[in-house]
Amino acid sequence: MSQQPAADGSGQATRKFTVVMAQMDFLVGDIPGNTRLVIDAVRRAGQEHNADLVVFPELCLTGYPPEDLLLRPSLDLRINQALDALCQANLSPACVIGAPIRRGGLLYNAALVIDGGETVATYFKQFPPNYQVFDEKRYFAGGTETCVVDLRGVPVGLTVCEDLWSDGPVERSAAAGARLLINLNASPYDSGKQARRKALLEGKSRDNAISIVYANLVGGQDELVFDGGSMVYDHSGELAMEAPQFGEGLYPVEFLYDYHCQPVSQPPLPQPSLEENVYKALILGVRDYVNKNGFRSVVMGLSGGIDSAVTLAVAVDALGADRVHAVMMPFRYTSSMSLEDAEAQAKALGVRYDVFSIEPMYDTFMSALANPFQGTSPDTTEENLQARLRGVLLMSLSNKFGSLVLTTGNKSELAVGYSTLYGDMAGGFDALKDVPKTMVFRLARYRNTLSPVIPERVITRPPSAELAPDQKDEDSLPGYDVLDQILNLYVERDFSAEAIVAEGFERADVDRAVRLVDLNEYKRRQSPIGVRISERGFGKDRRYPITNGWKPGY
């Protein structure tokens, strides 16, 4: 480490201090494997970047969120073994890691500094979050102490994730003399999250005259996607460095420390469009769910419609064409256009593609049901049977070949129950579960800017389930441009029906949409998980009782 006289004439030596943000993808529960990843990353950061300090995401030893694994009796033993391994690894740069630590019978979400073969500082997260997808208060107590540690002559403060969003921890660290603040994060993605993070970091760094290293997790964990986007802000509130979103890497930043700890600025990254960000989130969510759960491949129904078209593109971009099997399962109502477009997309993406008619199976079922159905008229029962036959075929292929079934329902359909239990909802993962229909169209347009794989008329034709002659989605639903706005207000922003009407929407559309959302909670509880891209998705975010007497209105 070199030193030279300070440029401000104070006589204090200027120190160079290199911090590497280890933006990495950890497997929840694999404490030995995650420990090996940390050791390898610290060694590489020292060799490749001459690091003084390597910073990892929140709870990197367990992965995030570990949920009730934190209640397992052997947790403390496994964490202690991991910390012993880190201390015995003879790591030359110091590192800050995240782990659950028990003190006085209470469990804390902790940041630990390991330097010279020992733990030299431990900080306990002060504000365990308990909202949206977070339920840390189920597991963790809140810390109370500020932690500032001297690392290579630099006073470094520690915080963990939510501490940055709350009043107190940053301010107390700065008051205690910290000139550089380390913030460990497992902050999940939603489509507006990075902008909110930047606004927060700008204000906290400027108001407290402290540089902040914001190190975030990357990777998919069940329905959550962590997007990385690690950042450094200087003490004046200026963005000095931003790591790419949705990718692993070791990202070095050099600081010059005399009185302030000033990062050397790096060129800004190009800012992605909303569609690009959402599409990358879907890719990462699908890839990690499939790979971390040990599936060799995926299988899905390709209908010739836009939802399955976008799902197929995401699957291929996530896994490669050789791991994706697309199946068209036509019936008498399937149009020639759908058959042609599905085949064209399968060929464009290079996936295995099979066509299995469900007509013979449908006829067999209807023959078996002829007596009990005698005297009744065809209705949605016959339509749902078509979807359920397709579900049986896909699940059979899944069982035989070990493939995960990807379902193709979007958020708009799930919201209003425009899907069939044990039919098109049958499967293991739904890439579009939190994607409104209007965004599905935008994603299709975006994907075709990379290479033209989705036929144009798949995007432009009126959406249809093709379960009845000349059927269109908008025969039974408001137009998606209207429906998605109503659903956003009701599902994500908790507007009442009356408040939505006051926004200028037709009462009939609002009443129908709200009623359908409320009625179909039982379906959503039985749907596969899928990638969360909004501030409030169906699943961990939104937990409404199935059986209830709440009436919509104010």
Automatic annotation (TrEMBL):
CN hydrolase domain span: 17-257
UniProtKB keywords: ATP-binding, Ligase, NAD, Nucleotide-binding
Pfam family, one: CN_hydrolase
EC assignment: 6.3.5.1
Molecular function terms, GO-annotated: NAD+ synthase (glutamine-hydrolyzing) activity
UniProt keyword DNA-binding, yes or no: no
Residues binding L-glutamine, per UniProt: 131, 187, 193
Residue numbers binding deamido-NAD(+): 384, 413, 523
UniProt-listed InterPro entries: C-N_Hydrolase (IPR003010), C-N_Hydrolase_sf (IPR036526), Gln-dep_NAD_synthase (IPR014445), NAD/GMP_synthase (IPR022310), NAD_synthase (IPR003694), Rossmann-like_a/b/a_fold (IPR014729)
Enzyme class: ligase
Pathway: Cofactor biosynthesis; NAD(+) biosynthesis; NAD(+) from deamido-NAD(+) (L-Gln route): step 1/1
Catalytic activity: deamido-NAD(+) + L-glutamine + ATP + H2O = L-glutamate + AMP + diphosphate + NAD(+) + H(+)
Active-site residue numbers: 58 (proton acceptor), 125 (for glutaminase activity), 161 (nucleophile)
Transmembrane segments: none
Keyword ATP-binding recorded: yes
Record: residues binding ATP: 301-308, 408
Function recorded in the entry: Catalyzes the ATP-dependent amidation of deamido-NAD to form NAD. Uses L-glutamine as a nitrogen source.
Homology family: In the C-terminal section; belongs to the NAD synthetase family.
Name recorded for this polypeptide: Glutamine-dependent NAD(+) synthetase
Taxonomic source organism: Marinobacter lacisalsi
Underlying gene: nadE
